[in-house]
Specification:
Blueprint (H helix, E strand, L loop, with lengths): L12 H9 L18 H6 L3 E4 L5 H13 L4 E4 L1 H4 L10 E4 L6 H10 L5 E3 L25 E3 L2 E2 L10 H5 L4 E2 L2 H13 L6 E3 L8 H18 L5 E5 L7 H10 L1 E9 L3 H6 L10 H10 L3 E8 L8 H12 L4 E5 L7 H8 L24 H15 L2 H14 L11 H17 L3 H14 L4 H19 L2
Parallel strand pairs: 1-2, 2-3, 3-4, 5-8, 8-9, 9-10, 10-11, 11-12
Antiparallel strand pairs: 6-7
Helix pairs in contact: 7-8, 8-9, 12-14, 12-15, 15-18, 16-17, 16-18, 17-18
């Protein structure tokens, strides 16, 4: 954020979407605590305080509860933290558990009358083709690195450690392609020209609808001349569909986050990640890279099937595949997952999870020694993001990467980030030699990939600082 002169990565899409479901004559104020603090004036101004949060934000929620209780302001809480664990917050009087669309009419009626129920819960999965365009007017877009929209909810797969299916189900529900393009057009009309994160947990869960959407985006961007770029999350079977990869690239997608988890087949079977089983994962990653998409990878350590050499296996896989942004975490048993229930039945759950996937901690009794896992994880992260290793991984990625999509906008913040990279990475921080080597070799031999090289160099500093403070 410092390099690109922004204050946060993404705005709170859930709250912005809920805000669009409230009556238009209500006065709304959105406080993004990634941007600024919640003041006493904000609380005194409000009739109701509506909170959305994830598990990692639990301590922040407790602070809000305390501040609101002083002024006796009623709280209505929703989002993943409360959907899977509202019982842990006895001081919050009202909850929306699960998705909001179908319960909003009743909730609004009760808010107007002042007589609210304790829990509002939709009996069915809502039809999200009726979900309105988020209230972008409630934020200052200049604060954020990217905007975000949602096309689908739910995932056809059912990995043991994942809570997506318990929250959104296994049948992907999508907005209509025209509806999502209208959301993009609303952003464009408001002046947004840069990256948009399509936040679906599996963008290709319904491939037919996804392909229809991509064709609509291509038509739209050609019509209006948009230079927006996109990133999203998808399962590894994206590599099996060249048409889908090409449509994503042609639509302006540049990056995709893929849950790779582990190179160990036994651990993939254990966690029921069937889409990753029985395939050469390095080939799959490089197929996606060759299509013109950067693969950001999620990796997990701490499965029961992991052996003591798991750290070396993960390191070798990440380096060989060229997954530059490798988000490695220790396995966590999230509430309401099949993993949590299994470990609870086995008497192995030891504590609640913090929701922080960079904290070297596990909330259950692992098969491997706990201290061995913690120390191995910290060492792996420091090694992966050490300058020599990291810049080598960038070069591996750039060798596999074949950009072919539409030309994207070079924003003023990109130029600022570039100049800061020259100063800080080129003269101040460790890895100066590796930075300049990548800088000139890419500029001279692969100028089309120069922007990627600089961006990844900056991200490396971010992850290196995280690893150093573990």
């Amino acid at each position: 954020m410092h390099f690109i002169s922004k204050r946060a990565s993404y705005p709170p899409l859930g709250l912005l979407t809920v805000a669009a479901m409230l009556p238009k004559n209500w006065n709304l104020r959105l406080i993004d605590l990634n941007i600024r603090n919640l003041s006493e004036k904000d609380i005194l101004w409000a009739d109701y305080v509506m909170i959305s949060a994830m598990i990692v934000q639990k301590n922040s929620v407790l602070d809000i509860i305390q501040k609101c209780s002083v002024h006796k302001k009623p709280i209505i809480a929703g989002g993943p933290l409360f959907t899977t664990g509202h019982e842990e917050f006895p001081n919050i009087p009202h909850f929306v558990v699960g998705e909001a669309e179908d319960v909003m009419p009743e909730l609004i009626k009760d808010m107007e009358s002042g007589h609210l129920k304790h829990i509002y819960r939709s009996p069915n999965r809502p039809n999200i083709t009726k979900t309105p365009i988020p209230r972008w007017d409630l934020i200052n877009m200049k604060d954020y690195a990217a905007m975000c929209v949602q096309f689908s909810r739910g995932c056809p797969f059912d990995c043991e450690f994942c809570d997506i299916t318990s929250i959104f189900g296994r049948v992907p529900r999508t907005k209509s392609p025209a509806q999502l393009v209208n959301e993009l057009e609303s952003l464009r009309q408001l002046g947004w020209k840069d990256t948009v994160f399509i936040v679906d947990d599996n963008f290709i869960g319904n491939k037919k609808q996804t392909k229809s959407l991509l064709k609509e985006i291509i038509t739209w961007r050609n019509k209006v001349g948009s230079k927006m770029g996109f990133l999203t999350e998808a399962s590894i079977n994206l590599a099996d569909d060249p048409e889908l990869c090409k449509l994503m690239v042609d639509a302006g997608f540049t990056k995709v986050f893929v849950g790779i988890e582990t190179p160990t087949e036994e651990s993939l079977v254990e966690c029921q990640k069937m889409q990753n089983q029985g395939r050469n994962l390095i080939d799959a990653v490089q197929t996606i890279q060759n299509s013109g998409l950067e693969v950001m990878g999620g990796f997990i350590i701490g499965f029961d099937s992991d052996k003591p050499d798991i750290f070396q296996k993960q390191f070798e896989f990440i380096q060989k595949s060229g997954v530059v942004t490798a988000m490695v975490g220790l396995l966590t048993a999230l509430p309401k997952t099949k993993l949590y229930q299994r470990l609870l039945n086995e008497g192995r759950i030891k504590s609640d999870t913090s929701g922080n996937n960079t904290k070297a901690d596990i909330n259950f009794e692992p098969k491997l020694n706990l201290n061995f896992l913690r120390n191995g994880y910290k060492n792996l992260m420091k090694n992966l993001y050490s300058p020599n290793v990291y810049y080598k991984r960038i070069r591996t990625f750039l060798a596999n990467y074949k950009p072919s999509g539409p030309k994207l906008r070079l924003a003023p913040s990109d130029l600022i980030a570039f100049l800061k990279s020259v100063w800080f990475l080129g003269f101040w921080y460790k890895g100066r030699r590796e930075y300049w080597k990548l800088f000139f070799s890419t500029l001279l031999t692969n100028p089309k990939k120069f922007r990627n090289a600089i961006e990844l160099s900056i991200l490396g500093l971010h992850f290196r600082k995280i690893a150093e403070h573990m």
